[in-house]
Design brief:
Radius of gyration: 25 Å
Bound molecules: ligand MGD, molybdenum atom
Number of helices: 32
Strand content: 15-25%
Number of domains: 3
Structural class: alpha/beta
Number of strands: 33
């Protein structure tokens, strides 16, 4: 057994392990917040910036998509929101001199953490074919290069336009408008890697692919189930909402293979008593095996159906379709198979059932723990079945709550960033602008990678994000990217996608959320939509990181003018001048945005987008009713001697942006190459705590995927399961291992074996 770290980045490969914490937030979080922020921004800028987060006249936190409460605190942000802001408002800079000093071949050897730590991008940069150094380039020349490569394509479908979820509504609307006027629906986005499974399952069953609850509903719920989500790290402000819900009488069940600190106890830094004592949040912890959720909810559904008077028959009769077929499938659910699939003791499920039956109003919240499996779509449909049975959709205090990731990922979809747009949306675009948008479906993320790999796509353009690091099957994805003719990234910070490029590459530096955006028509603001369908304005206040930055809307407008030239029928110049002109068009194209400008004119006064199931118990499906569905129950099969690995986030990262090397709540310090393994499994496999292993992925294609040099940490995860951080483990997720229907990479269920790391 090797007990020493293998050679590698000495900073990153020296993890230390202490006991995990059992409570989230509290005073240490405040202290840490300020220290982290001051390191990047200095004291004065820290105070100025953090006080503007999520305030009525300030900017929307670029962290997560959790909504802001009506009554706001002066400090309406959290430790991790502050890290996201510090990362953007940092005083460090990546200048042309930096690129002159560091060839791309050298940068490609650096960790993502190192790249991100270098600071904000200040100039448009160009990597000519065959060159090893990025060089500064003027904006006009940059757009010429893109136009040159796009006009050399045989079809607009050879270009791919990716979006990450920080892009504002205004920029997103323009971006899809440009792609469609060019003639393609190739608009993959981070949703394809994220909540696509939720969108697909919900659209099919309730007719709207978004959550059906508002913040107020949480405070009225009797029971909140949080499944496959780690809010203490990824949506910390949700803990305040859960605390308030509990104070109003709600009970909470958490369903997770890991005991996550935030769900155990929450020390609210905004109330004195919270700081002192902290409140326990979870009433019942179901430590489920990875991928066991569909089986769990199916059995609960059977038990509800078999309980006299438990089904809301009136609701089922009036508002739903497919009950009989579903009920027959549910009755066939079997205790033994469920216990095997979930790894749960029978008493725990019985306790959960008692809590369900005692609750009139139930909300189910979830995130990536449910969406990134082969059977994610049927799992989420089963949750819909569960809620429909007792009439828990379309009444206060009840409903579905997929907790979205990026701060505007939901808004981007609303604006038409989607590779399979609805005919109604395309009709509205056509009517408003007078060109004929393409009707062929475009590529999602996985299909875009295949197209690049196979030489069918040649230009890759990204509005934000870090496509190469966020996508699965790192080696395949990087090779695909290198085959492109041109790769372009509109970015704020340096990342891996800038150094694994096509033959030519461009980096287009842009303004962040925190920064002042001044155009010919004056100072601008943008709008965003949170996880609960609330739309509001966001206005940056800081001086831009460099005078050479353009805003995202300005970049799209200039790109469109240059690429489309005289054949465009869209007034790009007017849109760049004044974003109100963009909002006027959004108001005419997208339902729910009527009087858009008037409704966001008053600071802090956002508005809720309509949601038929929530507002009127109306289900815009094919039958006009909510659909029960009866998919066969699945769960991942794990061969003897193997573990089921989930790839997840540490407390010190934002997706591929690594803020630091600690995962405080889980007791991991100074390192990210760790694999959490249940001590019993570790003993059975003969891997000692502190030893080093390679994670070797096993999949049906027979290709061996290897992530070398992970320190084993004995950790109380569910039996048979393991956990390690993304993106270091993306190399293990096969491109073709995706969720049925949604095509989302199954990055929470990777079968691996642990191999001793080679001694050095
Ligand atoms: N600070 C910070 N905030 C973020 C992000 C970030 O990286 N950092 N990312 C943002 C984005 S884009 C997103 S999508 C969200 C992600 O938010 P989360 O979904 O909370 O993120 P993950 O770290 O992937 O955590 C997945 C959780 O699901 C559990 N889980 C894994 N497999 C299963 C399963 O089969 N069943 C069940 N029941 N649970 C399971 C894991 O143990 C873990 O608690 O957060 C957003 N907010
Ligand atoms: N194995 C595994 N893979 C996963 C996941 C997982 O759980 N496991 N999660 C998936 C999920 S849920 C998601 S959402 C994706 C995330 O995928 P992406 O959204 O593509 O990745 P991010 O890491 O969020 O992107 C970070 C980059 O965005 C740029 N950026 C930041 N702010 C701005 C801005 O305001 N404007 C612009 N133009 N650029 C900006 C910066 O340059 C930064 O380097 O990853 C997915 N990949
Ligand atoms: Mo996400």
């Amino acid at each position: 057994m090797v007990t020493k770290a293998p050679k590698g980045d000495p900073v990153q490969d020296a993890p230390k392990v202490v006991a995990p914490e059992h409570a989230a937030a509290g005073l240490p979080a405040i202290g840490r917040t300020l220290r982290v922020a001051q390191r990047q921004m200095g004291v004065r800028r820290t105070a100025l910036t953090l006080l503007r987060v999520n305030q009525e006249d300030g900017f929307d936190c670029p962290g997560c998509a959790w909504p802001e409460p009506e009554r706001r605190h002066t400090a309406e942000f959290c430790e991790n929101g502050a890290k996201a802001i510090a990362e953007e408002a940092t005083l460090r800079r990546v200048t042309p001199e930096f690129f002159a000093a560091h060839p791309v071949s050298e940068l490609a050897e650096k960790s993502g953490y190192w790249l991100g730590q270098q600071g904000r991008l200040t100039h448009p940069m160009y990597l000519p074919e065959g060159a090893d150094h990025y060089e500064p380039v003027g904006w006009e020349r940059a757009f010429d290069i893109i136009a040159e490569e796009i006009s050399a394509l045989d079809s607009p479908d050879e270009a791919v336009f990716y979006t990450s979820g920080r892009t504002s509504n205004e920029a997103a609307f323009l971006y899809q408008l440009f792609a469609r006027e060019l003639g393609t629906n190739n608009l993959p986005d981070c949703s394809n890697l994220c909540h696509e499974s939720s969108g697909r399952a919900l659209t099919e069953t309730i007719g709207v692919g978004k959550g059906s609850v508002l913040l107020e509903d949480l405070y009225q719920a009797d029971l909140i189930i949080v499944a496959g989500q780690n809010p203490g790290t990824n949506h910390p402000r949700m803990l305040s909402a859960l605390e308030r819900a509990k104070a109003a009488g709600a009970r909470i069940i958490s369903v997770n293979p890991l005991p996550e600190a935030g769900l155990e106890r929450f020390k609210n830094p905004q109330t004195p008593q919270g700081l002192l004592r902290g409140s326990p949040l979870t009433d019942l912890f179901l430590q489920i095996r990875i991928g066991g959720d569909q089986a769990l909810f199916r059995l609960l559904n059977k038990l509800i159906i078999e309980t006299e008077g438990a089904v809301d028959e009136e609701f089922v009769r009036q508002h739903t379709h497919g009950y009989e077929e579903f009920a027959a499938a549910a009755r066939a659910a079997d205790w033994d198979r469920t216990l095997a699939a979930t790894g749960l003791p029978r008493e725990r499920i019985e306790e959960a059932l008692r809590m369900v039956l005692a609750s009139r109003r139930i909300i189910v919240c979830w995130a990536m723990g449910l969406t990134q499996h082969k059977h994610s779509v049927p799992t989420i449909r089963e949750i819909v079945n569960f809620l429909l049975l007792r009439g828990n959709i379309g009444r206060p205090g009840a409903g579905v709550c997929p907790v979205r990731g990026h701060s505007n990922v939901q808004g981007d979809r609303t604006m038409g960033i989607v590779e399979r747009p609805s005919p109604a949306f395309l009709d509205a675009l056509e009517k408003e602008f007078g060109f004929t948008p393409p009707r062929r479906p475009g590529y999602d993320v996985v299909r875009a990678i295949r197209a690049l790999r196979d030489g069918e796509a040649k230009v890759f353009f990204a509005m934000g994000g870090n496509f190469v690091a966020a996508s699965p099957d790192t080696e395949v994805t990087e090779a695909a990217m290198r085959r492109a003719r041109l790769t372009v990234h509109v970015s704020t910070k340096l990342n891996r996608s800038h150094v694994v490029t096509g033959a030519r590459a461009l980096i287009l530096p842009t303004l962040g959320r925190t920064e002042r955006d001044v155009q010919a028509g004056g100072e601008q603001f943008v709008t965003v939509e949170d996880s609960m369908g609330m739309v509001h304005a966001s206005r940056g206040r800081l001086e831009p990181a460099s005078p050479h930055l353009l805003s995202e809307p300005a970049i799209v407008c200039r790109l469109a003018r240059r690429v489309l030239g005289g054949r465009s029928v869209v007034p790009w110049e007017e849109f760049e001048r004044d974003y109100a002109a963009i909002r006027d068009r959004i108001a005419r194209v997208i339902p729910g945005f009527e009087d858009f400008n008037a409704r966001v004119a008053h600071p802090g006064k956002g508005f809720a987008l309509p949601h038929a199931p929530r507002d009127e118990r109306r289900f815009p499906t094919a039958t006009g009713k909510a659909h029960f569905t009866a998919a066969p129950v699945e769960h991942p099969e794990v061969p003897e001697g193997r573990l089921l690995l989930q790839t997840l986030r540490s407390h010190d990262q934002y997706n591929t942006t690594v803020y630091g090397l600690d995962d405080r709540y889980r007791g991991i310090r100074n390192g990210r190459r760790v694999v959490l393994v249940n001590p019993e499994d570790a003993r059975a496999l003969g891997v000692a705590d502190g030893s080093y292993v390679d994670l070797v992925g096993e999949w049906k294609d027979g290709v061996e995927r290897r992530a070398p040099g992970f320190r084993v940490v004995h950790y109380p995860t569910a039996r048979g399961c393991a956990a390690a951080y993304y993106p270091e483990t993306n190399v293990l997720v096969p491109l073709d291992a995706t969720a049925d229907v949604s095509n989302t990479p199954a990055s929470k269920s990777v079968v691996v074996r642990l191999e001793q790391s080679a001694a050095d």
